[in-house]
Write a structure and sequence with these properties.
Length: 250
């Protein structure tokens, strides 16, 4: 929740005029956003606006046609996904992707590979403190978790890699509202300890209640950016989503 109307000075992620295309079809037309140290930023927009595409371009999963991405003082525009992870950017992909045939604990250990090639058990304790629901199920096969628990595991798998920036793409997708509350609460808690968060979420009001700052994307362009309160209070969001699929009516 934002209580300040000043963004932190120190920029962690800087995305400058990034264009992304699939073949000849450009879907992101010069997006510029930034995330400051310890800040919780939400990227909003209707289905198909280009949000996931922009996140994938930041993480190096798809190439940029032009533009620049700087992270923590490094130019990572053309870095590999692995190098970008090593700089401290971890993305939890849309649709909770965990290894079904492995236990919860083994899934978490895989998350530590981001910065220690043999897996690092010493990181588990902190994660079990943050996610007690995972501690209770550590020996259980991931396939036996509910959809919501799998999503929490996917987030925990990202957090255990100790990123500086955690990117979450629609963690609520298809899940109960309680799960997204849980994930947003953990994200807020992590943020208060200095982690930066970049969230894409269709549950707009919930997302804005947790985030400090928001960007609004429309057909591949960033059309507005403001503090969360301003976005909640203004009518721009309603105009962008009008007749669209803002699934949150509460
Ligand atoms: N692999 C792909 N190949 C070609 N076009 C794609 C591909 N992935 C996405 N697109 C197109 O790019 C545009 C942006 O899609 P993207 O998935 O980035 O949107 P989004 O804002 O994340 O939407 P959603 O809210 O539905 O997740 C859409 O028109 C989509 O059809
Ligand atoms: Mg998407």
């Amino acid at each position: 929740m934002s209580t300040t109307n000043k963004r932190p000075d120190e920029i962690l992620l800087q995305v400058q005029d990034v264009h992304v295309a699939y073949g000849k079809a450009e879907v992101v037309h010069g997006a510029s956003i930034d995330v400051r140290k310890g800040e919780f930023v939400v990227l909003l927009g209707r289905n198909g606006a280009g949000k996931s595409t922009l996140l994938h371009a930041i993480s190096g999963l798809i190439p940029k046609k032009s533009g620049q991405v700087l992270f923590d003082g490094n130019d990572v525009t053309h870095s590999s996904p692995r190098d970008i992870v090593q700089h401290g950017v971890i993305q939890v992909l849309e649709g909770h992707r965990v290894f079904h045939s492995l236990s919860v604990e083994d899934n978490l250990l895989i998350g530590t590979y981001a910065n220690s090639p043999k897996g690092d058990r010493s990181k588990l304790e902190r994660i079990y403190d943050l996610f007690p629901e995972m501690a209770e199920r550590k020996q259980q096969m991931a396939s036996r978790l509910s959809g919501g628990q799998q999503q929490i595991l996917a987030v925990a798998q990202g957090v255990i890699g100790e990123p500086k920036l955690l990117i979450l793409d629609e963690p609520s997708s298809g899940l109960a509202p309680m799960v997204i509350d849980r994930i947003l609460d953990v994200a807020t808690q992590l943020c208060s300890k200095g982690l930066a968060i970049l969230l894409v979420e269709q549950l707009v009001d919930k997302a804005l209640r947790h985030a400090h700052y928001g960007y609004l994307m429309q057909t591949g362009r960033i059309v507005a950016s403001a503090f969360s309160e301003e976005l909640r209070e203004g009518d721009l969001l309603h105009r962008v989503y009008l007749g669209g699929d803002n699934r949150e009516h509460a």
